[in-house]
């Protein structure tokens, strides 16, 4: 049982696909299939069965995961000094769990950068959910990016930047020009974005502490599309400042300072300790950190 076989087992388990496992490992699909055949003979079990949802593990394979991953980590640790990651030639597929803020803020810049320095690398974007911590631990997500205080404990993290809040309304709003008073803020109808990582809970808590109350007319589960909504209504949205600036560029809206003092918050990237020394993960983290400095 060598490291190649253990890596094939782990990638098929994570990706539920022979072809994607091969892409992530830089192996031909036939090589992965042969390795899977050796694994099946070694354990006298099918291990992975093709279904409508991909290559799903058998009970035997699921039971083997903790032990085989421990063995794989020991082998990787022993050979880590020789491990390298070449972005220019890699066909690796990275899975990034993102909040809507991260999605809208820097995904275009990330893809442009990867096109220049890692043209064969692919990116799969996942939504931040209650399952994100498990995905990071299992290796089903490489990084989680955004405002996620629930991941501050138990995961490695790096602060990318701090952000505040601004109010956004349509450019031709009939009652709001360059300034927004507390009285007008209270009277106008608001849209709130409840998606994880958009900071709405920070705004709600701070407004409540200051004794202010919004007239909430609409709640949205996602951030994309709010620019067009604001451009065609008299609604107000209170969003992170960087998002406000992005909305100004892509929609007929304007950003105005909030009449209430609202706290800043940190946008971070998070990863599990299993991948702290992984060359590919380290390269990705470094690339993202540089990218945020450029934006």
UniProtKB/TrEMBL annotation:
Keywords: DNA-binding, Transcription, Transcription regulation. Residues 1-58 form the HTH lysR-type domain. It comes from the Bacteria. Belongs to the LysR transcriptional regulatory family. It comes from Comamonas brasiliensis. This is PCP degradation transcriptional activation protein. Pfam families: HTH_1 (PF00126), LysR_substrate (PF03466). InterPro entries: LysR-type_TF, LysR_HTH_N, LysR_subst-bd, WH-like_DNA-bd_sf, WH_DNA-bd_sf.
